[in-house]
Amino acid sequence: MTVLGVESSCDECSVAVVEDGRRVLGQVIATQLEEHAPFGGVVPEIASRTHTRWIVGVYERALAEAGIRATDLDGVAVTNRPGLVGSLVVGLSFAKGLAFGLGLPLVGVDHMRAHLYAPQLAEPVEYPFLGLLVSGGHTIIARADDPLSMEVLGTTIDDACGEAFDKVAKHYALGYPGGVAIDRLARAGDDRAFSFPDASLHKQDHRYDVSYSGLKTAVINQLDQFWNGSSQKSAENIAASFERAAVDILLRRLDRAAADTGLSRVVVGGGVAANTRMRASLAARSDLQVWFPPLELCTDNAAMIAGLGYHLLRSGRADGLDLDASARVAGFRRTCP
Ligand code: KG4
Ligand code: ZN
């Protein structure tokens, strides 16, 4: 079964062709980074308009790369949640038009579930496993029992992890997105120079939840003291200590989830999974088996949408042309033991 995937939930405009949920025949990912960089973050209005201008070209290039014609397709899968609704609607309308015109089944795909599926496109990962999804918009610790299931165990109660990186980087005037710049700066710093807080949330209600707002404020306060000359601590040391705290916050919750569920397989996804410290810390853990998808499958991409779309279509799921977009993750449910 050859499925076309469409992804437009944020600032990546992507179309991919995937065979049998495994083999990526072609994929184009057009990033809008340059469009949003002058504003220090993604501007929803610019994102949706840019998708509108780009999506047909991205689709044509993806088909050409796959070496197939539209009539060779067996189904269309499209991200319909979560994300910026104006951006989602562009991909959704395009996918509906295509499915209707070609007489193909259409299926809506949850973007976060697709992130958990992404590594399967590189090498098979046995279910069940824990998922750690960390991006600019989401911070989720989840359990997956098969491609179609995702149980959210924990999430952030305020800022997303990548958002904290971006906001701290903005204070450093490092530009957008800031995660890569902080990552680089931290390499030259002492990660023990500061001890930044890990907000202790009420354990019974928030066993696997995280908070990044307090950490972000504490780091920005240190930076202010550095800028106004009242502290001799180096910017590199602040960055390294921030990064250590940001990663450890997640790993502590992940450890709890691993101990409680008895699962040791972990799939990591989202832009922050590119972080050097995060990768090194997880790779060093002999008690966990960790899968990092290759970078183009780790950040937003349409191949993971087509891959999961294949399983949905095979299970008999198909959506009508009234399929709607939503800003939220499907069936969001937090479970505590
Ligand atoms: O998944 P993604 O490409 O887009 C969404 O947010 O959906 O993730 C982008 C986020 C940004 O917050 C960016 O600063 C962060 O991932 N990021 C990093 C690194 N590379 C990207 N954060 C820390 N270290 C990195 N190396
Ligand atoms: Zn994403």
Provide tags for this entry.
2 domains; alpha/beta; five-stranded mixed β-sheet; 337 residues; Nucleotidyltransferase, domain 5; binds zinc ion; binds 5'-O-[(R)-(carboxyoxy)(hydroxy)phosphoryl]adenosine
Characterize the structure shown.
This protein is of the alpha/beta class and 337 residues long. It has 2 domains: 2-116 and 298-314, Nucleotidyltransferase, domain 5, CATH 3.30.420.40; 124-292, ATPase, nucleotide binding domain (Nucleotidyltransferase, domain 5, 2-Layer Sandwich), CATH 3.30.420.40. The protein contains 11 helices and 10 strands. The strands form 2 sheets. It has a 5-stranded mixed β-sheet with strand order 3-2-1-4-5, sandwiched between helices. Strand 1 and strand 2 form a beta hairpin. Helix 2 runs parallel beside helix 3 (85-102). The radius of gyration is 20 Å and the shape is globular. The relative contact order is 0.19.
